[in-house]
Design brief:
The chain is mainly β. 9% of the residues lie in helices and 26% in strands. The strands form seven sheets. It has a four-stranded antiparallel beta sheet, with no helix packed on it. Strands 13-10-19-15 form a four-stranded mixed beta sheet, with no helix packed on it. It starts with a helix and ends with a strand.
């Protein structure tokens, strides 16, 4: 057999045998191997085996460490403060808390299901709920223990803090920035660097978006595409101090401002935005039923919507029986959410449905009656064992439990 072929078969056999190690090659053998590499197709097979993740060659494990290092940077550019995204923040304070809220990724079976024999559900699981670590099931301690705290002198990119294995939350506070933080788990992937991005001040304003629509199905939710928006309805925004009449710039609410080609507000030499004459003071729905209220501060707002005067529209949407809609906005909020639509499309978070008064019950040609007992129901109980409840907007309110006759 040819020397080159024999050498190639020998190399291939040694690669395919688990635990086989190639001997150190002599200079002569190394030179012969170079010749084989240039002529033998079997060497290509050898390379393929070595590069295949399913081959006999084991992948190197990821190196880990229990020492934490920290890098703090600006989360975005802010022209008013001269901060550029990614700028290092070198002076800060930090606090590390134990993350003890639980594990939402724990499998349902065996310890996060109340029975041991689904779907029959006749054998009680003695480990449930004690062994279930879901945040919604486990008993919460009510606080997150402080592990350590300090400033940039004891924790930075070159000076680290050793931590025992576990889940943690680090919070960072720096002058001129909003408090921010990051969750992490120890052991960390080497070199153990956690990056915290902090938002520079001033924080961007928020936008409230409202959809006003004719609730044809009278179910308290917008059902696209069958239902349509209503124009000419006026929004009133209030907080704990009363109605909001101005935006963050001190101009009448819903004032529009001159913007550049990228949509950014244009400021005059004194740093003030330039209002568009004739705008502001009233927030009214357009032909699509949308009300856009820009340039509000982060807050919890109570939003109400009033129909046009001399109309008979009746509101159908409600939160907990009230006319107002709780609207929580953070800095930079767009006012859009994906809670109310079928495929998660962006849609106004705050909704108001209205109908015209309609009497479909008093028909002299129809006789009869309804008999039964009116009962009270407690909602927001666990779905397991709960009864179906009216409405689908909130998932049927997760079930209900009859508490007795009214």
């Amino acid at each position: 057999m040819h020397q080159k072929t024999l050498l190639s078969l020998l190399v291939l056999a040694m690669l395919l045998l688990p635990g086989t190690l190639l001997p150190a090659a002599s200079p002569a053998l190394a030179k012969t191997g170079e010749a084989v590499a240039a002529t033998s197709p079997l060497v290509g097979l050898q390379a393929g085996i070595a590069s295949n993740p399913n081959s006999v060659r084991a992948e190197a494990s990821v190196a880990t460490t229990t020492t934490l290092y920290l890098r703090v940077i600006a989360a975005r550019s802010e022209p008013l403060s001269g901060v550029v995204r990614g700028d290092p923040v070198t002076t800060y304070q930090f606090i590390i808390n134990e993350d003890n809220v639980g594990d939402p990724t724990q499998p349902r079976f065996p310890d996060c299901y109340p029975y041991l024999d689904p779907p029959e559900n006749t054998v009680i699981n003695p480990n449930y709920p004690a062994a279930c670590n879901w945040p919604s099931i486990r008993a919460q301690r009510g606080y997150a223990p402080i592990v350590t705290q300090g400033d940039q002198t004891i924790l930075n990119e070159t000076t680290g803090i050793p931590l025992p294995p576990g889940n943690y939350l680090i919070s960072v506070l720096a002058e001129g920035y909003k408090i921010d933080g990051a969750h992490f788990t120890v052991p960390l992937e080497d070199p153990g660097l956690v990056v915290v991005e902090v938002q520079p001040l001033p924080l961007p304003s928020a936008t409230i978006r409202i959809r006003v629509f004719e609730d044809t199905l009278t179910n308290g939710q917008f059902d696209a595409p069958g239902e349509h928006g209503l124009a000419g309805f006026t929004a009133v925004v209030a907080d704990l101090g009363g109605p909001i009449t101005t935006d963050v710039f001190g101009n009448p609410i819903c004032t529009e401002y001159e913007r550049d080609a990228d949509g950014n507000i244009i400021y005059d030499p004194d740093g003030n935005p330039i209002p568009i004459p004739g705008t502001g003071g009233k927030c009214v729905s357009d032909a699509n039923g949308d009300i856009v209220i820009p340039n509000v501060s982060p807050n919890r707002f109570d939003v109400t919507v009033n129909p046009p005067t001399d109309t008979t529209w009746i509101q159908t949407t409600t939160l907990e029986g009230g006319r107002g809609w709780d609207t929580w906005v953070l800095e930079g909020s767009t006012g859009l959410d994906n809670e109310f639509m079928v495929a998660g499309e962006p849609f106004p978070w705050t909704i108001f449905g209205f109908v015209q008064p309609t009497d479909t019950l008093n028909n002299p040609a129809i006789t009869g009656g309804i008999e039964g007992t009116i009962v009270a129901a407690a909602v927001y109980v666990p779905l397991n064992g709960g009864l179906p409840y009216y409405g689908g907007q909130w998932g049927g309110l997760s079930g209900a439990k009859i508490t007795g006759p009214v």
